[in-house]
Each structure stands twice: as structure tokens, then as C-alpha cells.
Amino acid sequence: MENLLSVPIKNDIYYIGTNDRETPLFEGMWPLPNGVCYNSYLIKGEKNIIIDLVRANTTTDYVNKIKEIIGDEKIDYIIINHMEPDHTSSIGSILEIYPDVKIVTNKKAIALLDAYYHVEDNIIEVKEGETLKLGDREFTFYMTPMVHWPESMVTYEEKTKTLFSQDIFGGFGTLDGGIFDDEVEYDRFYLEETTRYFINIVGKYAGQALKALNKLGGLDIELICPVHGPVWRDNPEKIIDIYTSLAKQETIDGCVVIYGSMYGNTKVMAEAVARGLSEGGLKNIKLRDISKTSLSYLLSDIWRYRGVILGSCSYDNNLFPPMEYLLTEISHQRMKNNIWGIFGSYSWSGGALKNLKKYMEDGKYNVLDTQLEIKGTANHDELESLIDFGREMANEILNK
Fold first, then answer.
1. Does residue 281 share a domain with residue 238?
2. Is 321 part of a structural domain of the chain?
3. Are residues 307 and 179 in the same domain?
4. pLDDT of the residue at 335
5. How large is the average pLDDT for residues 88-100?
6. How many domains are there within the chain?
7. Closest CA to 37 of 132, 200, 175, 145
8. How far lies 277's CA from each of 254, 255, 274, 286, 391, in Å?
9. pLDDT, tens digit, 9 for 90 and up, residues 255-297
10. Are residues 287 and 326 in the same domain?
């Protein structure tokens, strides 16, 4: 049978992943304006082996790709690196078609297989560093706990020097024709989606991700097959470097100003701060309205930009509620390499700046001493102070 839907990768390894253009939010939280792909791989040989599955809503396309490669043959093994449902929820359909298939995974994943899908039979447990021969192929398994679930692992085939890396090295976005890194304009599109994916999904476990990257550093890798995003065959070192930088939260010279404004006064203050950043010599500046911008993009900006300025109006003697929620999420991410600035506004009573100060003090953040609070609409002198505040932040960023 001629392969039209599946894509040959190397030495009878095939790409059989699917695109999801319908789901609006990943994990019910993170926007998918460009969709997402669920990558799965089939190895044909003495034994037919699937590595990682897909989400149930794309099962029909998935099964067609499998049958295109093996016809009426059976699947002998499924290797499950990660139990999250976007990579396993099609398992019921696959087991109906191939009831005798054996599942290869680790102890923690076995418990989740039972919890999610009530699968208890035909399971082979593998441990850290174990090598397993399946037909004419040999695989070695490495545990990568909390990247980003406790059962996560990766699979390495030394013969082809291929790393099946589960969520590590993944990113948002469908694969629109091009499957490999040398078939897409990665920096133009996928780099931003990879950055956002890492920070939204893996960021709070950056320390564990760094440990996993160090563990895999000794492998001779020529091909990286993640479960999201392009397959890396031309320059796998590039995605390794990108993920290492993200895991270390290596910031860039820039500043994001995030403001919450009910009637526009705090917005005017934020624009004055941004003008000061520019006058201070900073070119990479983003201004974000917290009421209109998804948390997904805000967290991504904060992770990558050295400077972060938060400005909030007061709301019932407290912070503007969307700002309060953002602060909760920032705490979860354990960000450590930023310079912070804060300002607030109020009408009949304060609360915003007081609570921003407390948050910075409790978290021991590196925050500028200048912390402005303005009643009502900023006058000429107050706008000058805000511009000076922006200049101060630019100076801190550029002299670090």
C-alpha cells in the first residue's frame, strides 16, 4: 500500500501523528489559535511498535495512517512515555482493533493506565536505564519525573540514534504539511509557540526539566521525535539549546508592561511608563492589557523578558481581580531572573499598590524602589514621574 497520509522518517520509522484544529483551549486553559498536533510514531519490522498515541478526537485519521503502513498486520507493542490524555485517550479504540497488543511503560504510568482506562493486562514494566529488545529493535528508557507529570519518561533507540522525547521539546501549533524542522520556518512561527508551550505547561517544573536535559546530554542524538511540534532531523541541537535556555529562564533585554484598567486612567499611566522605557534606550517593549490578553501570553512574556512592570487600578480596596489571578499564577511558575516594577491607581480608596507591594515583599522579588500611586487621572507632573520610572527600569535592564 502506498503511503500517502503517514510520513516515513528513517529506517522504517513512520510519523502517524494527527492535527487538532478544533479544540480552542489546551488543557481547558491555554489558547490554541494555531491548533496543536499530537505526534505518534510507528516502527515497522519483526514487531510492529507504536510509540505514544493521540487524543481521542483524532482517532479516525490516526487509525487510517496505521492501516496504511501495516495493512492487516497487527500492532505488537505500544510504548507509552506519558499518560496525559492528549497522548493516550485513543487507547480504547486501538485496543478494540488490536486486543492482543502489549503495553510498555513504567510503574507510575501503569497505575494511571488503570485509573484512566481500566487497562490492567498485557503490560510490560520498564525501569530507569533498562534496555528492552522488541523484535529487531532495542530501546532504552529514561525516567523524567515531573516533566511535567510524575510518570513521564523518554525512549531512546541507539540503532537510529532516535530520542522519542514525549512532551520535552514540544510546542503548540499544527503541522501544516511540513513535518520536519527543515521543512518549516521554525523561527517565524514555531519558536513563539514552543516558548509559550514550555512556560504554560512545563515552566513551573523548569528545575526538573533541566535535570532531564542534563540526563539526556550524554546520548548520541541524531533525531528527536517529540509528541508536539516538528520532528528534529536536520538540527536537533537547536531545540535542545532552546529548551535548555527556557529551563534556565534565560531572559532577554526587554520589558513587558501589564496593566489592569477599568476606565482608561491606568492605561494612560502604562503608556507613559512605556514611553520612558523607550527614552531609556530599550527597544523590545510590550504593553499588555490584562483584561484582553490571555494568561498564556502574559506568563510567556514574563518568563522571557528581563523587565516586568505591573500596574493595577484599585478595586474594592484591593487589586483589580484579573491582576490578582495573574499574581497567583506567577507564584506557581517560580520565576527568578526578572527585574520588577509596580504602580497603582485609585479613586476613593487605594488597595492596588499596597497589595502589589506585599506580593513583592512576600516573594522576595527584585523590585525597583520607585513605586508610584496616582489618584484619578495623572496630571502633567505625575506623567513625567511615570516616564522617569520607565527610564529607571530601562537603565536597570540594560546595565545588568
1. no
2. yes
3. no
4. 86
5. 97
6. 2
7. 175
8. 9, 8, 5, 10, 5
9. 999 999 999 999 999 999 999 999 999 999 999 999 999 999 9
10. yes
